[in-house]
Queue: 4 jobs
Job 1
Amino acid sequence: MAQALLAGGLAGTAVDVALFPLDTIKTRLQTKGGFWASGGFSGVYSGLSSVVIGSAPGAAAFFVTYEYLKRKLASALPGRNREPLVHMIAASGGEVAACFIRVPTEVVKQRMQTGQYRSVSLALTSIMKLNGIRGFYQGYSMTVFREIPFTCIQFPLYERFKKIWADWEGRPVYPWEAALFGSVAGGIAAALTTPLDVVKTRIMLSTKRGGAVGILETFRAIVAKEGARTLFSGVGPRVIWISIGGSIFLGVYEAAMNLLVDGRLSAHSFDL
């Protein structure tokens, strides 16, 4: 469990810092005002400090929960035909746990990315003044609603790719191979869940007093006023960001787990 905690934290931080500019571009494309009105290509690192604070604990919470549930469910639901179900439930549980940590930092990050606030301290005081603690969890339900379908696609695919390759090669999957499988699985999941991400972004960026912004209300407003195509705003940067992010995230995680469990990295860990 300690290995999953540290490995997950390292993996999450590596991804969020390396790919932050792509995330900013994606977020600005999804805003109601549009890309250029939200800042265009300027200040693409706005909000990075917020992400750094929440990235490691959020990713660690995900993997600790994921690994724990995966082990427990594998015993309760034995059989290869049940493996996808085990991975779906375990990943969903991991996302629910991670979102308790991730959502407050995500709210601050996205509002800084789109120019609503210029500093973390100003964002914190303004959100607290407007909506209290609830303001930091604005969009929590929608984030979970986005992440569960995402992980139910990504992780069963990722685990299946690893299983097929390990059986084919007759050996455990190397971290660089896990990175490749994570990239493909993440890209597929990202494309399919982009509409949910757009709705989540709109909810988090809302400054409505009281913080009560409904999921269906937001979805209907986007379709009615801007057209269904708007639900796929930012799909390109999102797929690229998550494909690369998935390779780093899962590759670093597998490598870190190997190092922490075995005390060393295989010579093949990062050989391409």
Note: The radius of gyration is 19 Å.
Job 2
Amino acid sequence: MQEALNFIDSPAVLRHAQINAVSGERFGVVSAQGHRYWLKTAMGCLLHPAVGDTVLITLAGEDGYILSVLERTQQQPSQLRVEGDVHLSLPSGALSIKTRDGLSADTGPMLALRADHAVAHFTEAQVGVKALSVTGERSDHYWNERNDSAIRHCEKAVRHTANYSQSRREVKGHEELTSGSLRQRVDKDWSLRGETLDLFAEVTVAVRGERIKLG
């Protein structure tokens, strides 16, 4: 193995090199002159090097760094790596991301998004959560068809209004209604059918009509 030259007390130099080995966070490189070095990547080298890459290196004294990846000869996924916290700031303009085969994000313990206005368009969407809490001042939903399925369903409202063209409700088990007062108005026919019908009133039971038929 040809040993690397000693660059102590010499100005920094730039060279092209090729990566031929990886050991932890250090990379073995061979310069165009055939010199071999073990170097680590500089903070500004966002594209993580791989074996076979042609890279730009800098050498100063006993230190050296890989500045950037110049060319990748083998077809393989690229990896951008930055140590520590990262803050991306755009004082003006917008950030646009466009991908051909999709976008995947693994944010670990938390994902936080903040915006004055948000718009999302999907052909199909599937969301799975263990617990979901949604709060706001107003919520509007518009669907051609909606199906809800729940083992237990509970609704609470100060005022509830529902308007239907047609409505049908089927309760296979027991249904119980408790109300402070109840009033039903039917414009046409109203029928009640059951095996047993019990009507209890503490004060008065009144039945009024032009014709009343019992039995």
Note: Strands lie at 13-23, 26-31, 36-41, 54-60, 63-71.
Job 3
Amino acid sequence: MVIDLHVHTTKGGYDSILSLPQLIEEVERRGLDGVCVTEHNSVWGREELERFTSDHDVILVEGMEVETDVGHIVILGLDRYISGIHKASELRRIADEIGGFLIAVHPFRRFFDSEELGLKPVRSWSQVSEEAIALPILGVVDEIEVLNGCCTERENSLALQMARRLGLRGTAGSDAHSRHGIGCFSTIFEREIRDERDLIAELKAGRFYPAQRLLGGEMMPCNGEAPPG
């Protein structure tokens, strides 16, 4: 099953121009099986999502992208914002309590900005790797988003290498805020996903892999080769 694990609609804030009906229409047009709707610090509500999909063969799973003190983390399994989860340690505690799942999304966004702007010397790959693996967010989550539609190829490559180093499979999502880009990166699941419970179970079981959508529509698995240097 092909599921885009990172999409935003207009309900999640000012930065999205994608309505839920538009999202469903685009998901069907692109041949995806479903998406995880990950609004910023808020949720749609499971019943409302089910109402929108009642006449469609599309799976919409509720998630929340929480802005924490160590970076942005998507939590699956939580049905509302709870005071205090802006602290990653509290978000981790809540996730464990409810049987949820945490994904660090775009963990290395802007990680290379300073050297690309000439503000810092260019680091070797070994230096980059050691700095990256030390980021606190990596010690809090269950998985790392390794393909994000709003990140650079270099940022995604680093995320993939850190996932491999930590023994993680890595997830993928478009981070779409409009029709454009939905499903450009998606997570492929080996078994059928019918709802949020199935999604969390399959993520915990590790029966998935990240993939990129090619121009012809086919999905290409991520290979995980390290860049030179």
Note: The beta strands are 2-7, 34-40, 59-68, 71-76, 101-104, 143-148, 171-173, 185-189, 208-213, 219-221.
Job 4
Amino acid sequence: MEAIIDTNILIYETIEDSMYHKEVVEKLKDLESLYIPTNILIEFILVMKKLKLENKVIMHKISEILEDPSISLISIAKMDFKESLKIIIRENRDMKEINDKIILALAKRKNLPIYTYDRQLKQQARKYGVKVLSR
């Protein structure tokens, strides 16, 4: 199985004392291919900085991600960005939700499930016919 990975999954996998760490680690082992949109990798770095992790810890984690053969980075196409903006307008959402909408647009275009624990993203994915992997 394969999936697009949301930021919260990367965080739970990284922070060993997080409430879903073990569960996420086990689920990730079951996935053959993981796809991380480039914007999600950037968001992950920014969240890790907010959590006050040291640069060397963050760099080590990013290196692990980049060296893992089961992980591919996905670039955002112009059509994905346009689709995410359409969703924001259609749903009357705030622009701060752009990363979630980009994940949704990518998942629709590539016909891939999303692995997330974000309740709102799960609801929207189901609304748009995108499969969700979660707890």
Note: Strands lie at 2-5, 33-37, 71-74, 114-115, 132-133.
